[in-house]
């Protein structure tokens, strides 16, 4: 493994805080520190923290595109409107279905693949190379590519279904019932490599000796996984699923290219919805309010998830 | 507050900005030698039409050394979002190619120049009044409509002749009932009478709906627009719905397709007819297998005859352009009758100008040109395109509602409720 | 553990692996197949995996129809600049975050995590308005600055991991030997950090190379647009698409990141993991 994961191992041994304090040096270097930190800090403040605060402020205005109007404070009016905007909540529900629908299979499939790739199988190199492909592709290309696959008449999926005698195929991306599942499959496909690679790195971190000892004790594969592998993998799994969830909930390009929110709004993720509101209808303030609601809900979900999981870890 | 936030942010980043951009000079659209620089953003998509546009720009530049036009390629798919943000960012092209149904919000927001007084009498007189009405918003005229396409039926000649159904002509088109009957007859094993590519169902439904007397949008005495559904509004949606869900003479899978997605099935004999925009003939010509015979038929007619709505392609001038007069001159040049014919042929569409439409080369029966020209006089402005809030109604309310109705998920009652009740709520937000 | 694996289990593993390979690879193979098919085969109702008459027409058409070279050049400039600037500003900060325990480090770490949760929509509107006031809308520089900030969280995350992997004792030993702080950094820390920095830069490069959303909103004039934006142009009105050239262009756009990924795959893993476990 690489340098970095070696550290991971060493750090896990000691209490996390302790080893760090030892490394810290006494004060008396603040000028130097600022010199090191400022180049990153300034752009972060101007183009990340600033816009965030600005965005939150915008949510309380009636900012719109146009040469003719001036912007005014409207207090919570946008949020009130949002409360009654059933289309937005539909979209929000779709966003949650999408985020869970992608994150969970992504994790399960990636875990399976990572376990396989961790075995001493032949052709493993090929599998590793192929597993990376989706990650390396621009999301736009992934979307375009799957459009080709899903194409009802000229696509390979329906042709395969016809060849296997399973019927006439479907209009995957444009059918009201199939669009969201079809898009979710693409989401799983596109996000699997990252998850796999992270989990694989975690797996390669499990001490081989423990595994062998457990095997000699006669522990079955499942028990070995439960008692030896999983405890080591847990922090990685926790972090990567949390990140995946956020990324998925906020994803844009994939669905923008695949369906652009159609058919009938069935795949209109909240990001797409807010994008349309801002850059299609020019309702900047209203769109910013949507963004605020999204941040709030995501934070709550994550807080619950991480808190629950971390506590679960302590109980054991 | 926006101002103060802006100042803070701007001040914080000024140093960086100066480093990166140098001082932003004033831009009056002239280059160093005093030559006027104009940018023309074209949405031409098919190769022939890109070539025609670029060629015309080249000819203009050769004839006008003091006014240089640069060709900029845009895209239909993203044009609205792209224009909105360029207007906001003060980066809009001087001459803007778009479609009339996309102009309303830009015109009302003050981004487009009122062309009255800028265009020469020749051009104003050449284009019929009803075409002008597609680009008239409030008092002003915000674009020159120059190309339009009716929706036509592209049919598989062999299937049509074998079935023995009456072949319609512009003088004697099918009625909507007859059309429904015919598609039933054309349907057979592994074959549908028609495939409706309704990925964007709203404009098709509204535009063809005019033939059955559909209107949907009603402007009251106070100038406010409301949506009401009458008998005539149900003719076209009803026919499509029945073809798909009752007769099974229209393919269900095709409902979600865009026009070109239906072509493989059409060439393969899976669909006997496809209602498509007139310009799709270009793709048919290019992709049809050897020996495939096809023909262009007029769309069915209703109580209002062959009437159907169109949203012509338009050329507009940005309000922020420092050289509106020259930009209008360029538009006039592009749309001289011979040039309009070239653009029309490049896009496989019909010109709006009467002089161009009379050009003999457009009256050939080859590739169905003559059928299109014959339908041209029945073309009307697409309903509702001048209504504020129409785009949002279309995307958020009408598209999902129609898609669900056509696929059989909801009935006519629910469709009407959504189009009207939900629709009026959206419109109200824009008409406060 | 391989010694205990029975033959049937092994067979099952190979079958599962094959399933994964098919799932992961077939869309890409279909893309390649489509890219080499002539128009008539693309219009066929019964498409085949191997084109009957393979052709390069689609590639020629793709270059004819859209300014692909220009777009690729724009993407390259944006991605290279963003990657370089990102590591240049991130490395010192990551060093401080890894070695010092201060309120600043804590705040920065917090931001790294939180910034992942921002919906871009909330950021893009203010960014758009701010950049507009700086006259940076529709410039590659504006886009590059956005990309730098956008790549920073992940770059910091990775780099902090790499810095921690360099034993602080080494630096202490060097300073005990009388080397100045700067010299210690340059002669001891930097060489050990170099592979990590390269991996981080390449990662930032790919992120920028692939990015659509910001480019879509911030770049207006077509000659400034990046590759992902231009790719969306192959989809015309009503979703009509010219499948062949679309596939050809998409295939070409993927090659650079595929190559880079092949090179840095393992290093990224390490960095990601180190960061992941720490947070």
Automatic annotation (TrEMBL), chain A:
Name the UniProt key words of this record, in alphabetical order: Cell membrane, Membrane, Sugar transport, Transmembrane, Transmembrane helix, Transport
Q: Which Pfam families match?
A: BPD_transp_1
Residue ranges, annotated region (Disordered) = 1-27
Question: Where in the numbering of this chain does the ABC transmembrane type-1 domain appear?
Answer: 92-305
Q: Does this UniProt record's set of keywords contain Ribonucleoprotein?
A: no
Compositional bias annotation for Basic and acidic residues: 9-24
Q: Subcellular location, in the record's words?
A: Cell membrane
SUPFAM superfamilies the record matches: MetI-like
Matching InterPro entries, A to Z?
A: ABC_transporter_permease, MetI-like, MetI-like_sf
Transmembrane intervals: 33-60, 96-117, 129-149, 172-192, 232-258, 278-307
Kindly give the membrane topology term recorded for this protein: Multi-pass membrane protein
Q: Which GO terms describe its cellular component?
A: plasma membrane
Sorted alphabetically, which PROSITE patterns does this protein's record hold? Answer: ABC_TM1 (PS50928)
GO BP term, example = transmembrane transport
Q: What is its main location?
A: membrane
The UniProt similarity line reads: Belongs to the binding-protein-dependent transport system permease family.
| Name listed for the protein in its UniProt record | Multiple sugar transport system permease protein
Query: Which organism is this protein's natural source?
Result: Streptomyces atratus
Automatic annotation (TrEMBL), chain B:
Annotated protein name in UniProt: ABC-type glycerol-3-phosphate transport system, substrate-binding protein
Q: Which UniProt keyword terms apply here? A: Signal
Stretch forming the signal peptide = 1-26
Query: Organism source for this protein?
Result: Streptomyces atratus
Automatic annotation (TrEMBL), chain C:
The protein's matches in InterPro entries, at most eight in alphabetical order, are given as: BP-dep_ABC_trans_perm (IPR050901), MetI-like (IPR000515), MetI-like_sf (IPR035906)
Q: What is its main location?
A: membrane
Q: Do you know which CDD domains this protein is assigned to?
A: TM_PBP2 (cd06261)
Q: Which GO terms describe its cellular component?
A: plasma membrane
Any idea where this protein resides? Cell membrane
Listed transmembrane segments:
12-32, 76-98, 110-131, 143-163, 184-209, 246-264
Which UniProt keyword terms apply here? Cell membrane, Membrane, Sugar transport, Transmembrane, Transmembrane helix, Transport
> How does the UniProt record describe the way this protein sits in the membrane?
Multi-pass membrane protein
Q: Which residue spans adopt a coiled-coil conformation according to this UniProt entry?
A: none
* GO annotation, biological process: transmembrane transport
The keyword Oxidoreductase belongs to this UniProt entry's keyword annotation: no
Q: Which residues form the ABC transmembrane type-1 domain?
A: 72-264
- The organism's superkingdom is given as Bacteria
Pfam families xref list: BPD_transp_1
> What is the similarity comment for this entry?
Belongs to the binding-protein-dependent transport system permease family.
Protein name, per record: Multiple sugar transport system permease protein
